[in-house]
Automatic annotation (TrEMBL):
InterPro entries (alphabetical): aa-tRNA-synth_II, aa-tRNA-synth_II/BPL/LPL, HisRS-like_core, HisRS/HisZ
Record-annotated Aminoacyl-transfer RNA synthetases class-II family profile domain positions: 17-273
Keyword flag Transport: no
Protein name listed in UniProt: Histidine--tRNA ligase
Native species: Litorisediminicola beolgyonensis
Length: 358
């Protein structure tokens, strides 16, 4: 697929979003690495291109537009605001070299604190309409429901924080659940630290950036965590049941309502889901056939913390999603310098759109 054709499609998509009231914005290709590292930790290096600038320090070729758009809005944006953009993003693809490491992205972002569920429905409906002539399957989810369930667990704050931190890493999340519930043993190296079998004083010279005091504090934290009560079987079963929800929206709502009866805090998140279903229906979306997967979005960029969605070509399972999006309220708080605003948006890949319709 030619780059020229992809650019032409990107312009057409951007014009369509502009016609819906979005303001066109531009973002620098080189982004400060510090911001992205603060958000995602060193994990971002595995999927971004990093370079060193003698004047500006460490920089990254932008892995997406959302972070710079949020930074721009939190500094100078009016409320409410709708933005659109088009341009290249850069992602390393070490796990799958066949995938493009540079490609075009067209996005639509909404910053509006009036009615978050209505904004969710607006973005999804706009994407559904834009892609209506393309044979794609829509999937939706809600990270906020899972985070609410984790926040309500009867366990230590440290264990809740660890599970929250790894919600976007399903394998690690499962490992932690198994360890906290006693299903799997503590790793030998960790157990040795807890038991005090790894002495620091009189051992080999210290190597690395952590001091002895920092290591001792870490060992104390590990011991405190190990002494905490195990997660009850019922709590683990609740999380498993929640993560297995994969039905059309009305049936998913019914299932989640049942789970919320015995799960503190889950009811508020399920109420938001119900309001979103109503808002989607008001936008003309057939919610009776719209799929909802409770675990959907857990391997995406970590800034999504609520509603998530994607559009896939079922006839081309080898392709990434043609479009993805979701809510990222917490990101605006992280980058807002003390302020925050509910925000939701999504992106479309013109190259994949052309490939599906070819």
């Amino acid at each position: 697929m030619s780059l020229g054709a992809a650019r032409q499609t990107a312009r057409a998509l951007c014009e369509g979003f502009t016609a819906r009231g979005a303001e066109v914005v531009e973002c620098a290709i080189l982004q400060p690495a510090e911001t992205l590292l603060d958000l995602y930790g060193e994990d971002i290096r595995a999927r971004a291109y990093v370079t060193q600038d003698p004047a500006r320090g460490e920089q990254m070729l932008r892995p997406d537009f959302t972070v710079p758009v949020v930074e721009m809005h939190m500094k100078e944006g009016a409320e409410p605001a709708r933005y659109t953009y088009a341009g290249e993003v850069f992602r390393r693809q070490e796990d799958d070299p066949s995938r493009a490491s540079e490609y075009l992205q067209v996005g639509y972002e909404v910053f509006d604190r009036e009615n978050p569920e209505a904004a969710d429905a607006e973005v999804f409906a706009l994407f559904a309409e834009t892609l209506s002539e393309v044979p794609l399957r829509a999937a939706t989810g809600d990270i906020g429901i899972l985070t609410a369930a984790v926040a309500g667990l009867e366990t230590t704050e440290a264990r809740r924080a660890a599970l929250m931190r790894h919600i976007w890493r399903p394998r690690r999340f499962r490992q932690l659940l198994d360890r906290f519930s006693g299903k799997s043993p503590v790793p030998p190296e960790r157990q040795a630290l807890i038991d005090g079998q790894m002495a620091m004083h009189g051992a080999a010279p210290m190597v690395g950036l952590r001091s002895e005091d920092e290591i001792a504090a870490r060992v104390a934290a590990l011991r405190e965590d190990a002494s905490g009560p195990q997660l009850g079987r019922g709590q683990v079963e609740m999380l498993d049941a929640l993560l297995s929800v994969s039905e059309t929206c009305p049936f998913a709502l019914e299932h989640l309502r049942d789970l919320a009866v015995d799960t503190p805090g889950l009811g508020v998140a399920v109420d938001r889901f119900e309001r979103r279903i109503e808002a989607l229906a008001a936008q003309g979306i057939d919610v009776e056939t719209l799929d909802f997967e409770a675990s959907y979005g857990r391997t995406s960029m970590e800034y999504y913390d609520g509603f998530v969605f994607g559009f896939y070509a079922e006839a081309r399972p080898d392709l990434p999603p043609v479009a993805t999006g979701g809510r990222y309220d917490a990101l605006t708080a992280r980058l807002g310098g003390g302020g925050s605003i509910p925000a939701v948006g999504g992106v479309i890949r013109p190259d994949l759109l052309l490939e599906v319709t070819a």
